[in-house]
Amino acid sequence: MSKLVASDEQILVYYCQDRLAGYSFIGVIDVDKFIVPQQDRNFKELMRHLMEKYENTASFTFLVEYYIRNWGIHNSPEHLIPIEYIQRTAAMKDRVKNIIVRDRFEPGSITTHTVIPRRGFNSVIVPTDVAVLKHYRECRDDWNPKSDCINGTGAFQRFTDDSLKKKLEQMNVKDNVTLHDAILRAIKYLGVN
């Protein structure tokens, strides 16, 4: 990544950080990634339980399960990627994402994948049986060896996991239109503008 692109990315992060100053948590998460609670019913409940268990935490780091698109579609194409792809890796500490507790991090320390806690606070890696980040993508060129990713070997061992597909089906989300409606309902429920 060029220095200019990295700099531009950080300007956006700082802008969002400023706009979100009134919220309890800040998350720098791409729209193609999903934090999925494994035990809690929703994200709000998950964060409440994490804060109760880890009182002195500045950030919660979510490990990443990659659903590798090179491994092919396993359900009929329905124009909704989490339903089409169900082959994933084990949870990895690769390009993790963080949910940061407001006022508990060093100013200017948030990047896309890292955060520096203020003195007296720490970072917690969220256990995968509590929550995990799901990401759908093709094998990256910088994964070494890339052939392991393409073949589903080594660190990229394949697991079949249709849990997100089942959750979406429980919500009657089967395509982008119903997903959009579900997102709007969630935004209204959370009171996010």
Short characterization:
It holds the Pfam family Glyco_transf_92. With 193 residues, the protein is of the alpha/beta class.
How would you describe the overall organization of this protein?
The protein has 193 residues and is of the alpha/beta class. It has one domain (3-161). The chain is built from six helices and eight strands, in the order αββαβαββββαβαα. The protein has helices at 3-19, 43-53, 81-84, 146-151, 163-170, 176-190, and strands at 25-27, 33-37, 57-68, 87-88, 92-101, 122-125, 131-137, 159-160. The radius of gyration is 18 Å and the shape is globular. The two termini are 32 Å apart. The mean pLDDT is 85.
Task: Describe the SSE topology.
Blueprint: H1 3-19, E1 25-27, E2 33-37, H2 43-53, E3 57-68, H3 81-84, E4 87-88, E5 92-101, E6 122-125, E7 131-137, H4 146-151, E8 159-160, H5 163-170, H6 176-190
Parallel strand pairs: 3-6, 3-7
Antiparallel strand pairs: 1-5, 2-7, 3-5, 4-8
Pfam family, one: Glyco_transf_92
Keywords: Glycosyltransferase, Membrane, Transferase
GO molecular function: glycosyltransferase activity
